Structures are given as C-alpha cells and as structure tokens.
Amino acid sequence: MSLLARAETSLAFSFEGAVGHSAPPRLVAAMRHAVFSGGARIRPQLTLSVAIACGDDQPALSNAAASALELMHCASLVHDDMPAFDDADIRRGRPTVHKAFGEPLALLAGDALIVMAYQVLLNAGHALPERLIGLMQSMSAGVGLPNGIVAGQAWECEPRADLGQYQRAKTGALFVASTCAGALASGSDAQPWVTLGASLGEAYQVADDIRDVMGLSADLGKPAGQDLLHTRPSAASELGLGGAVDYFQDLIQTAVDSVPACTCRDMLQQLVRRESERLVPSAACAAYRLPSARSAPVVSA
Amino acid sequence: MSLLARAETSLAFSFEGAVGHSAPPRLVAAMRHAVFSGGARIRPQLTLSVAIACGDDQPALSNAAASALELMHCASLVHDDMPAFDDADIRRGRPTVHKAFGEPLALLAGDALIVMAYQVLLNAGHALPERLIGLMQSMSAGVGLPNGIVAGQAWECEPRADLGQYQRAKTGALFVASTCAGALASGSDAQPWVTLGASLGEAYQVADDIRDVMGLSADLGKPAGQDLLHTRPSAASELGLGGAVDYFQDLIQTAVDSVPACTCRDMLQQLVRRESERLVPSAACAAYRLPSARSAPVVSA
C-alpha cells in the first residue's frame, strides 16, 4: 500500500472510530467535508514514513498519530478560511466549510476536529501510555501555545512579527510534530527528526508565499494574492521573489540532507523532492533564478 | 482556603505554566481576558470538592483537572459569544473577547484554550499515566463528539433536536466531566459521580432558559431574550415557565440526593443548593409556582 493510501485509510478508520452514532448529523457532515476533500496528506505521509524508518512496531498507533495530525491540520484550515481570516470561498476546488454549512457549523467543526485529534490518539494509544503521552505533548506543542500553528496564525494579528518565528510557528510547528510523531509512535527518540519537519515546514510556508505572488495558488484550489490583500508577513515581499525561490530551494536541500541514515532514507528524500516539485515546479523556479544568476557576474565584473 | 480560592489559584498557576514566554502577546491577552474575568468557577469547584471527597491524594493533579475543565468552559464561551452564534457584546459585565480583541483573535483564543486544557493536564499528570489518560478521555467526551458541549451547541444548527439530548450535551456533558475529574484525579471510580454532574448540568441549562425568559440574565452580565431571538430549544418554551421552574427544582433535588455517602456530603450538598439559589432565586421560583399550586386543588375539586 502506498503511503498516501495508508494515510487515507487510517484517517477514515480513525474518524469513524471517534465520531460515534449520536452526534448532530450536520456537524458530522461539516467535519467530513473538511477532512475528506482530497488533501495532499503530506503531514500523515511524513509521520508514516518516519514511523517506518523507526521500525513501525505499533502500526495502529502510527496510523492514529498520522490521522490526528491531519485532523489538526484540517481544523486549522476550516478556521483560517472563515470570514474573520481569509474569507475564502474555495478550498481544494470545493466550497469551504463555512460556505457549504454556514459559519456556526464551521466554527464548531474546527473545535470538534481539535478534540477529535486527541480522541483518536487516546483510542489507539491508551495501552501504550508512555508513547501516547509523548505523542500528545508533541502534538499540543505543534498546535497550541507558545509556538504552535495557532500561535503562528495569531502573529498575523500583531503589529510586529518576526518572519522566521511566524513561519516556524504557522506551518513548521505541525510539520515538526508530524515527523516527531512517527518516531514517538515507534518508541524512538524524536530529536533526529526535528530538522526534517522544521525545514520542510518552513519550505511549505515560503512556497505558499511564492505561489501567492506567482499566481500559482489557483492550481491548489485557492485564491492568489491573499498575502498582499491581508498584509501578512511574506518571504516573497521580504526577500523578493528571486530571494524567496533561493531560500525555498535551500530549505528543501536542508530537509533532504537532514534525513538520518536509515533503510528508508531514499524514500523520505524522494518524498521531500516530490513535494518540492508539486509546490513550486522547478521550471517556475528557474525562470526567476536565471536573471539574478546571469546578472551576478556582470555586477561583479 | 475556600474551594473558590483554590480553583482561582490553580487556574492562574496552570495558565502560567502552559502559556510560555514566546507566544504572540495579543493572543495571550485575549486568552487572559477570556479566563480571568470573574467567572463563578462552578465546574472547577465541583472537581475539587469531589476530589476531596475521594481523598485528594494528588492535589496538584486535582488542581490541573479543575483548571483544564474551566479552560474548556472559557473556550466555549469565547466561541459562543461570536457573531456566528450569540453575537454578544457583554460577558460577565465586560466586553466579550471578539469585542475587545477582534474576531480573528477570539477565534484563535478559543482554539488555543482547548489545546491548553490538554497541555495543563499533560504538564501535571505525565508521571501518573493511568489517571492522566482517564482524565483526558473524560474531558474529551465532555467537549467533543458525539455528546460533548461542542455537539450540544451544534444541535442548535439542526432542523430538529431533542430537548433532553441538547441540554445534556450543551451543558451537562462538561458538568459530568467536572465531577468525574475529581474522582479520576484521586484514583477513584468516576461512575458514582455521574448523576451529580448530569443533573446539576441540566439544571444549569434549564436555569439559563428560565433566566432568559424572566429577564434575570442581565444579573449575570449577559443580555436576556436570546433563546427566543435565536429560536433555540428551551425548557421554558417547551414546558412553560412554571413547568420549567418545577423541573429545575426536581433536578437540583436529584443532584443533592445523588451525592454518595462520604465525609464531604454536606459540603457538596450545600454547594449545589447555593448554586441553585444563585441561578434561580427561590423567591422568583415561588412567584411562578404558587399560581399552579393554588389552582391545582380548584381543578381537581
């Protein structure tokens, strides 16, 4: 089974195991809409590939950890799309949750997905308390205060924000939790996997900034030009587009190099490179890198 | 130290232990505004009094459990007050979080408080994994799907809702989690404490309906007439005001009678009766009960 198929199957299994039979039907429908809508599932794939690299001796716990992190990601998308933030009508080519179900259910669906992420971990891990507690601590750090994705989003509401801190929190934190979860679910030390998550996560955020400026965002099913519109910190506006593209490629290289020696090193490195290409096609990068590469010798001559 | 003082001190300690030093300052301010604003702290007081009844051999864990449940309650208030739901300007006599900090930070503060509730439990309980896991399962059930307070709120978005199921979920679920948490934190069986939480929680919801109609809600620092305005299920509209008052008093009696034999039985029963009086003063009840009590013999004569 491919990583993507395993991530998708696990998510469906975890969701059904937590949802119960007596919940309000429209809330459940809104949550399903948020979760099962063709996401790339990069976070759970990261978790699963690191778990495999670490032996994956408790695959049900790895699956639950992968699912929990994707549920957190989906929760954040539901709330970020709401009128208070991006006011986005479209996500992954379909109506956003608040457009399809209204704002009250979007708000509640996000809340319920956050709690469900913990429920999924508890359902799968209560017999392995040490691993479970490590996973919950790591996931909480990836989402909550002081430096998780909720804090990252909140930096947009501050009069001043450090671009690096903002990006590490807004996207990097949940990527770090995702790589660490694979190790923790397998009873391994999470530390060697932090750099992979952090650099890949920051690369995602920089890619998002680049795509937003290049107008590529529509390919991912969401509107372009949002950073400028919402005056958000952006690598593209801080470094220029060429600088942002260079920075993105450096981050990808750091992620690739950080993968510890293990039987799955090739698989993980390929996963990172494939994602890099999907996010910012190298052809698009080259177009923006060439002018500065050509002009550099002229300036120094 | 009184129960209220212990609840308040614990909440401040738990909050500071989880908030960290590098979080966005306005987000932290919004969370403080939501949590430290003179709430009655009935849920944490319930947790602490049940913990004492069960021996309270791990007071730091009891304190954390009490705090976590209050954080969940505060999170739900922040989101419920937002324009998508009650659109309330005032809570406990002060501006609501979205009025004071804007909608984006209100949305994020609620999310961060949900995660913080888990962080508080993890910080205090990681050395007692069995109790910690029980507490997390119980708290998750009180908040999430299928029958927690988020589900309760979502029943307002359904075309049809059973009044009992709605009230049990919307308010009762977190009260059940609060009484059970006291037992679980002390290593005791939670089951004997379910009825106390469930009946007191339902009484709170019925009291809210009664107050909303009687116009007493302003005493609690929020606007009256919200149920009718938002066409929500309400005991007062389903049973009539007299019937709702009778039902409220039956629920309080059930709660009082349910307290298991223990050294703290009197204290707990007094807590319940004091809350009953605070919520719906017996003088107000009497005014609504007398006519039906007087007319009954006439009808049967």
From TrEMBL, chains A, B:
It holds the Pfam family polyprenyl_synt. GO terms for biological process: isoprenoid biosynthetic process. PROSITE patterns: POLYPRENYL_SYNTHASE_1 (PS00723), POLYPRENYL_SYNTHASE_2 (PS00444). Gene3D superfamilies: Farnesyl Diphosphate Synthase. The keyword Phosphoprotein does not apply. Belongs to the FPP/GGPP synthase family. This is Geranylgeranyl pyrophosphate synthase.
